[in-house]
Write a structure and sequence with these properties.
single chain, alpha/beta, Rossmann fold, four-stranded parallel beta sheet, about 10% strand
């Protein structure tokens, strides 16, 4: 159930039996010629909603803009600074912690968020550890949806080396299944440059001219997206249960 579809009474009642909550986090950035700019947020939100329904766990509002400065040479991309994202995650968690939530399970849709999310958790834990007034204990975990065991195996089976590292067929397929009306039937020229290191936005654009990184998103289709959503949810459900333990 989505938190923003609840009343405060419903949340108060739910906290009597469950103190865990899922937090989708994504990005608003280019995803190659046929991928949606909102791909990372769309995927994270859909997986969290489906897993939350299966687990009967609340799902917080999605953090839709992440740390994506390296995509800013492509029109429509948005970013926040790492320091901004750290503060945003802190405020998300502390707001919910104030009401009694203790376990925060972030479902991440953008690899570029990972270092900043980790730093945000470190800041949160430091605040608790250094508090002199008995700050509440919290536990945070972040998972990249594409890295679960079942999901990784299916991605490899479906796309092999053509999965690549950005604007991948797996994430494009997920968005195609989530909303078929957004499918973009546009040509994708040539082979994408292989994954590699990059620095700022101009460096990324120079090395990966159409936004892809080793991927062939023309392989995507909604049917694959449905399969991927199923295995993603299975991975998340299993991992979430291990994370919350008796706190659920």
């Amino acid at each position: 159930m989505l938190l923003h579809h609840c009343t405060w009474k419903e949340v108060e009642e739910r906290l009597q039996s469950s103190k865990g909550i899922m937090v989708p986090i994504g990005s608003t950035e280019q995803h190659g010629p046929n991928g949606l700019i909102g791909t990372d947020a769309i995927c994270a939100a859909a997986i969290a909603a489906a897993a939350g329904d299966e687990l009967d766990v609340l799902v917080a509002p999605t953090i839709p803009v992440g740390m994506a400065q390296h995509h800013m040479a492509f029109a429509g991309s948005m970013t926040v600074r790492p320091s901004t994202l750290i503060q945003l995650i802190n405020d998300w968690v502390m707001s919910l912690s104030h009401h009694g939530f203790t376990h925060f399970y972030f479902i991440n849709g953008h690899g570029g968020n990972t270092p900043t999310v980790t730093a945000a958790f470190d800041e949160l834990y430091a605040g608790v550890s250094l508090s002199a007034d008995g700050a509440p204990h919290i536990r945070c975990r972040s998972v990249n949806w594409w890295q679960g065991k079942r999901t990784s195996e299916l991605r490899k089976k479906l796309y092999g080396a053509k999965e690549g590292a950005h604007a991948t067929p797996s994430e494009v397929a997920l968005t195609q299944y989530i909303d078929r009306d957004t499918i973009k039937n546009v040509p994708v020229d040539g082979v994408a440059p292989p994954p590699g290191a990059f620095a700022d936005a101009s460096d990324y654009r120079e090395k990966f001219p159409d936004g892809r990184m080793g991927s062939d998103p023309t392989l995507a289709n909604p049917e694959d997206g449905e399969k991927l959503l199923g295995v993603c949810v299975a991975d998340v459900v299993e991992d979430y249960n291990k994370f919350v333990g008796n706190a659920a």
